[in-house]
Design a protein that fits this description.
The structure holds three protein chains of three kinds. Chain A is an alpha/beta fold. Chain A has helices spanning 17-22, 62-80, 92-101, 113-121, 173-176, 192-202, 215-223, 235-244, 254-262, 290-300, 303-313, 338-343, 349-368; strands at 6-9, 54-58, 83-87, 108-112, 148-160, 186-189, 229-232, 249-253, 267-283, 345-346. Chain A has 13 helices and ten strands. Chain B is an all-alpha fold. Chain B has one domain (33-262): MetI-like (MetI-like fold). Classes of the chains: A alpha/beta, B mainly alpha, C mainly alpha.
């Protein structure tokens, strides 16, 4: 039984998701991913053949990329006869250099929302061919001119259920700034993106008045708990800190919290004011096979591909139709699940890109103290 | 000639492409020296450069402090123990940065092993902050840099003929005196080389400071990386690189002058 | 001042002991974690398991290790050889442009690695070396030359030039003089350079991230490639295996290399 906005996963409770998830092997191969409701045959079953053609797909490595390989690239290759080679990890400076020099050796890349807009400004990507990519499968925000949404993830409030029993943990961003009610070190990401939004929301700014961000106000708010913050640089660190008890609460990505929970951590996350961000698939400008790349992009947004990917990672689908095929135990972890989406606030990556230099500058100055 | 292959190699594989990149300092986003003016006038760059120098200097100091006696032992001990010591000092290289960072967390965090020990023996009343601050960063960096100071020192110390020191003692000099007047000056080339290598290498660190350091412990290489990767500007990073090169070459010159004088 | 007679060895022993602990304790933690039953980094481990050692046997890791091993030996050899030649050439008095040349050869140490990475990447694409093991060898060699040059130069500095002159006056040809007079004295320096270059190549991350490809993927890139995920003890098992391997090499050398003058 879940109370609104609260999902606590305690390893002792066998009825909650964690127990179910441990019995599942998440990456046992394409077959295993269909263990839930029978996935739909891809309506866009490729009739076109690309046999003899090659694409290089680049993402962020690990389980994330492996899941994408199994969910998008493998079916695409099987259906069209194309060869899809995995490379990575994603390296922004390398992308800039290779596109600048022409004939990039990477074709399709998974990029962050800020890099999408930055790449558009710097003319790094091919325009998406929406004759090939079925735009109607995506929510409007997820179909950009130069990028196709891949997955939605969120920053959530999290806390250790060892430090705070189920109903006594922080529920909102403002709670993270309350050292009296919620003592202990809290963790934040060592990155200006999202941290400013969190501080402003904690200071009482409403979601609709968030942008343009009042940077001074946000930094002042952060100053109030500055000494009690442990900053994480890699997502893995965020998992470590909360699992090991180095922090009692903080900011975490939904996928990491999910992973920590299924590995037995006593963690709970909240969905109030969750900050949503998106990853996009792009085609690098000058790619040798733009047509095949567009078809791969289209394959990635089909319901079955999305469901396979979501079931393995707990990142949310961009195709709402995929929800019917996502494992039930995962739904509570997904930012685009209707209840969570209502509480969610999508970050304005376009605005961020326009301010990148000055925001980074002010952030770095603030860091120095 | 002997030097030619090295020159051709470094110039070709490294020098020319890097020079082309560094040229962007004067052309990106538009021709001129605005990038340098920007760096000089923006307190951020000045402070981060200063930070970088301080952290690198501190790393060098502690590396020399620990490395000098270690190198001395290395040079004056049996081959068997020497092999063991060389092995020991190279150990950090076998462990990846990511897992080593975690090890340090285990050791240095407030509920970690070292604090447990210190509180347990009553040395301190409550845990001291050893991690995610400059202390933790220095502990991590010195460990990685120790070989770079030990080996140059060692290779110089093996050439110091113990006869010199014995002669000084024989003439009535105290051990302290013969060390300072005879041994230390003879080991100076090793000190200068090792110190320089550690200092200059430390200037370029950014991953370790991110993993082990505190909020304010970020160094110039991080700024350069972020601008190239995240924002896509090349001019300021190139200008910063030129400044680093200029500063380091000046340092090399000073060291050379110091080295000549101790002869 | 007979106290100093006792203080120095004791202090020295203390420092060496400290360094040994400093190097080995973090490694000990890594070794312990490698046997953890938990699929994430945590200390102390909740249970015992050998699963990570099995994970290391996965072709992905084995290939990466092989690539690193195949790359580091030629890279180190190249760097040491070129560095040796350059060091010998540059120490001759009156060598034209010795200062600027030395600076050029030392510059890979100073230029921020992301700049080196991007610049080298651009060049290698043009030359068809991008994504090849050869490319990795060349890039690593360039990054190691400064260390080789610095270390060997320092060794040469302390070699008494009169020894060489004496040998020459006794009729020794230059090459002969080098091999039988100079080289034995700088052997420690050359050995150090080679060792440095090996570990620098093995540990090199940022430039390798640019130069690597699915066909040429060193171990550092492989370890770094799980950016968004959780780190599991596979890399701890890897580190432990490498440590054991180095230990075995050490022991073998100790047993069979006995009797030979070391350095």
């Amino acid at each position: 039984m879940m109370s609104k906005g609260l999902l606590a996963v305690d390893s002792n409770d066998s009825t909650l998701p964690a127990a179910n998830l441990r019995r599942r092997t998440f990456l046992a191969g394409a077959g295993a991913a269909m263990a839930s409701a029978a996935l739909p045959i891809s309506a866009a079953a490729q009739t076109k053949t690309f046999s003899g053609r090659k694409l290089v797909y680049v993402s962020w490595g690990g389980v994330y990329q492996d899941s994408q390989k199994l969910a998008y690239c493998a079916p695409f290759a099987a259906e069209t006869g194309a060869r899809v080679i995995q490379d990575g990890p994603m390296n922004e400076a390398k992308v800039r250099t290779m596109v600048g020099a022409g004939s990039p050796e990477w074709d399709v890349c998974d990029v962050t929302d800020t890099f999408l807009f930055n790449g558009v400004t710097n003319n790094l990507f091919e325009k998406i061919d929406y004759q090939i990519v079925q735009k109607n499968k995506l929510a409007p925000d997820y179909a950009q001119d130069y990028g196709v949404g891949n997955c939605v993830w969120s920053y959530n409030v999290c806390y250790s259920t060892k430090a705070f029993s189920n109903s006594n943990g922080p529920k909102t961003w403002a709670d993270l700034f309350d050292l009296k009610r919620f003592p202990g070190k809290r963790m934040f990401r060592n990155r200006v993106y999202a941290t400013l939004e969190i501080a402003l929301l904690a200071d009482g700014v409403t979601a609709d008045k968030l942008y343009p961000l009042d940077v001074d106000r946000a930094l002042r708010k952060l100053d109030t708990i500055r000494d009690e913050i442990t900053w994480w640089n890699t997502p893995s660190q965020s998992q470590q800190f909360i699992t090991d008890g180095a922090v009692t609460c903080g900011v975490i990505q939904n996928g990491r919290a999910f992973d920590a929970a299924r590995k037995g951590a006593s963690i709970a996350i909240e969905w109030d004011q969750n900050l949503q961000s998106l990853d996009y698939l792009v085609v690098l400008r000058g790619s040798k096979d733009v047509e095949a790349a567009m078809h791969l992009l289209n394959r990635s947004i089909q319901e079955d591909a999305q469901a396979r990917f979501v079931n393995a990672t707990a990142y949310a689908p961009v195709n709402p139709g995929a929800f019917d095929y996502v494992d039930k135990p995962l739904q509570p972890w997904l930012p685009t699940q209707p209840e969570h989406a209502k509480l969610g606030i999508t970050m304005n990556a376009m605005w961020w890109n326009s301010q990148l230099e000055s925001l980074n500058e002010r952030w770095n100055k603030w860091r120095l103290g | 000639m002997l030097g030619l292959p090295a020159l051709a190699f470094v110039a070709g594989v490294f020098g020319i492409p890097v020079l082309l990149f560094l040229g962007k300092a004067f052309t990106d986003p538009s021709p001129g020296v605005q990038n340098f003016k920007l760096i000089a006038s923006d307190t951020l760059y000045v402070r981060v450069l200063w930070n970088t120098v301080v952290v690198s200097g501190a790393t060098t100091f502690f590396a020399l402090l620990l490395g000098y006696p270690f190198a001395y032992t290395l040079a004056n001990t049996s081959p068997r123990i020497r092999r063991l010591l060389i092995f020991v000092v190279l150990v950090p290289f076998w462990t990846s940065l990511l897992v080593r960072a975690f090890s340090w967390t285990v050791l240095l965090q407030p509920q970690g092993l070292i604090n447990a020990m210190l509180v347990g023996i009553g040395f301190v009343h409550k845990p001291i902050e050893l991690m995610f601050n400059r202390t933790g960063l220095l502990i991590g960096m010195v460990q990685m840099q120790l070989p770079f100071v030990v080996f140059p020192l060692y290779s110089v110390m093996t050439t110091i003929d113990p006869a010199y020191v014995r002669a000084a003692s024989g003439l009535g000099a105290s051990p302290v005196r013969s060390f300072w007047k005879i041994y230390f000056p003879l080991s100076m080339p090793g000190v200068l080389t090792g110190g320089l290598l550690v200092f200059v290498t430390s200037l370029g660190y950014f991953i370790t400071p991110a993993l082990l350091g505190g909020l304010r412990d970020f160094m110039i290489a991080q700024l350069i990386h972020d601008q190239v990767a995240d924002i896509g500007i090349w001019g300021v990073p190139a200008a910063l690189s030129i400044l680093l090169l200029a500063g380091t070459f000046a340092l090399f010159g000073l060291a050379k002058a110091a080295g000549v004088r101790t002869k | 001042m007979s106290n100093t007679h006792r203080i120095w060895p004791v202090a020295r022993g203390f420092v060496c002991g400290l360094v040994i602990v400093y190097m080995l304790v973090p490694l000990a933690i890594v070794v312990i974690i490698s046997f953890s039953s938990a699929p994430f980094l945590t200390f102390p481990p909740p249970g015992f398991s050998l699963q990570w050692y099995k994970a290391v046997l996965d072709p992905v890791w084995v290939d990466a290790l092989m690539t690193s091993a195949i790359v580091m030996v030629p890279a180190a050899s190249l760097a040491t050889t070129l560095g040796l030649g350059a060091a010998l050439a540059l120490q001759r008095p009156g060598f034209p442009f010795a200062g600027p040349l030395r600076s050029l050869l030392m510059s890979p140490l100073v230029v921020p690695v992301i700049v080196t990475g991007a610049a080298t990447y651009g060049l290698f694409r043009f030359l068809g070396l991008q994504g090849t093991r050869t490319g990795l060898v060349l890039a690593h060699a360039v990054l190691s030359i400064p260390y080789a040059l610095a270390t060997i130069s320092t060794s040469l500095q302390v070699v008494d030039p009169r020894l060489g002159q004496a040998a020459a006056s006794l009729g020794s040809a230059p090459l002969h003089t080098f091999f039988f007079v100079t080289f034995p004295m700088i052997r420690a320096g050359v050995f150090s350079s080679f060792l440095f270059s090996l570990v620098i190549s093995f540990d090199e991350l940022v430039v390798s991230l640019f130069i690597s490809s699915p066909e040429a993927r060193p171990i550092t890139v492989q370890m770094w490639s799980n950016i968004r995920g959780d780190v599991d003890p596979t890399i701890a098992a890897l580190a432990t295996l490498l440590f054991l391997f180095a230990l075995v090499v050490l022991l073998v050398e100790a047993v069979f290399g006995n009797g030979q003058a070391d350095k």
